Amino acid sequence: YSSLWFNTSIAPFNNINARKAVSFALNRNLWAKTRGNGINSAATSIVSKSNIMYSTKNFPTFSLAKAKKHAALYKSETGKNLEFVFPSSNDSSSRANSKAFVALMKKAGIKASFNEETTSDIVNKGFFEPGVGLKYQAAFLLTLEGIDAAFNYIFLSSNMFEAGTTNPMAGLARIGKIDTLLNITKHTDAKLDTLLQAARASGKAAAYKLVTERIQEQAYIANLTYQRYAMATTKKIFGVGQTKLAAGGSAPAVFNWGTNWTSVWKK
Q1: How would you label 191-209 residue by residue, b for 16+ Cβ within 10 Å and e otherwise?
Q2: Tens digits of per-residue pLDDT, 184-200?
Q3: Which of 96, 16, 100 is nearest to 58 (CA)?
């Protein structure tokens, strides 16, 4: 689920009207048609229909009128026009995507610009500096995915170790300032954390939907499109997609980080 993650700890996205303005300015159907090359579809939630967290409630669907309204509210509150900078990988495809995104923002009266960097630098500045977290005003990251919430949870919680935990690793993580490392948006939303913890405790879809609805209400993440991963194989290769899970069923054959080779074999 390709997404634009807002850094809520600094301007302009410490202001909800700035986040909503950008979110409403995203013409997802146009993006899927012109930039998706037929393999993407417009997002209707921060996750897809197959995910336990799926809910369309509070999702900021495309509306130039609402985008301009929230941009105007941002200016009235701060005295500044809405503008921001985001990173872009220095390859031709990413550059074209970034230019298309800038054009979408311009239609809503929002000034967006980008700096080209290597993908590794963007990832490092997005995740891997203890005690700092995201070092951009906003960044496109392919982080959320799948049909459950286990992988997504760690990027949505403000702290990977909740208050009062008995996990022995929590103390070390806090000393090393890595307990908040994966909180990409750098939010401090206690209500969202409470909803996340309740959802994990119950494991029920209804509880996870409340998490999604809170995130969409606060516009912490602006989703563009959904995309699928696929792999090709031959009759000479066996066991593709057949890794059995202890809880039942099979693991996906391919993830965004590559192919699941656990069960794959060749004569």
Answers
A1: ebbebbbebbeeeeeebbb
A2: 899 999 999 999 999 99
A3: 16
